[in-house]
Amino acid sequence: MSDFFASGLFAGQVALVTGGGTGIGLATARELCTLGARVAICGRRQEKVDAGKAVLAQVQSAPDQVFGGTCDIRDPEQIATFIGEVLERFGHIDILVNNAGGQFPSPAETMSPKGWEAVIRNNLNGTFFVIREVATRAMIPMRRGRIVNVTAMVVRGFPGMAHTGAARAGVENLTRTLAIEWAAHGIRVNAVAPGTIRSSGTAQYGDEVLEVARRATPLKRLGTPEEVARLIVFLASDRNDFITGQVFGIDGGQPLWGDIWQIPELPASAAHEPGEGR
Prior knowledge:
The chain has one domain: Rossmann fold, CATH 3.40.50. About 40% of the residues lie in helices and about 15% in strands. It has seven helices and seven strands. It has helices spanning about 25-35, 45-55, 75-90, 115-140, 160-180, 205-215, 225-235, and strands at about 15-20, 40-45, 65-70, 95-100, 145-150, 185-195, 245-250. A seven-stranded parallel β-sheet has the order 3-2-1-4-5-6-7, sandwiched between helices. Helix 1 crosses helix 7 (about 225-235), helix 3 runs parallel beside helix 4 (about 115-140) and helix 4 (about 115-140) runs parallel beside helix 5 (about 160-180).
């Protein structure tokens, strides 16, 4: 157990992280770099990709071991081009973290067909397009690979987010299905479902909304991108060889708590923050 997250854990491996320029994606890419992986990141906006690469270059001993480029995962042609660039540069892809996605709040009755389709294309279709391209061109031929899909906590429904709730539920079923189909190829497929995480992705909703989410979380705080990244990194590593087709919530217990059982606020001295002793 002493070498669980040991230096060099991912030596010789190549990881691709979509949406790797910010938030959970960047935290995951940074951990993978720290543990010895060569890492490729992508995103729709060049400025975010460049900012992510600058962060990764600070922890990667050799700058040429980090690669980044723009890629709209809704477009299969762009995906094929980007995957080709990664393979040309690194030769193989061992790990895929599907983190790219996005949505906007809207009641279902006012959601336009265009808005619905935009989120489904991004969060469900795009995820599948990337998985299929990486699997068929890299993982299936070498008969090994680790895929981790980043979804969302949708177990109780997702009021105000019907489009992304439906898409994320689709990704969860896709995770389970591909875990079965591709077990014969030595590929492990799992998913991580974060609750409310304080990151660049949730900043758009404002402090008031985040405070409501915090109060509704039994642990009385929001999660961090680094906490999600640690779970992703374990699932992406060879330390995980007998877990596949699973969806892991990381949410502070939020889906378990109904409105009937009230949990009082904790005194400041009793509230644990990440990294503090237990």
